[in-house]
Amino acid sequence: MVPLLLQLAVLGAALAAVALILISFVAFITATEMPHLHRQEDEKFFLNARGQREALPSIWDSPTKQLSVVVPSYNEEKRLPVMMDEALGYLEERQKQDPTFSYEVIVVDDGSKDETSKVAFKYCQKYGSDKVRVITLVKNRGKGGAIRMGVFSSRGKKILMADADGATKFPDIEKLEKGLNDLQPWPDQMAIACGSRAHLEKESVAQRSYFRTLLMYGFHFLVWFLCVKGIRDTQCGFKLLTREAASRTFSSLHIERWAFDVELLYIAQFFKIPIAEIAVNWTEIEGSKLVPFWSWLQMGKDLLFIRLRYLTGAWRLEQTRKVN
Question: How far is the C-alpha of 235 from the C-alpha of 264, rounded, in Å?
Answer without folding.
Answer: 11
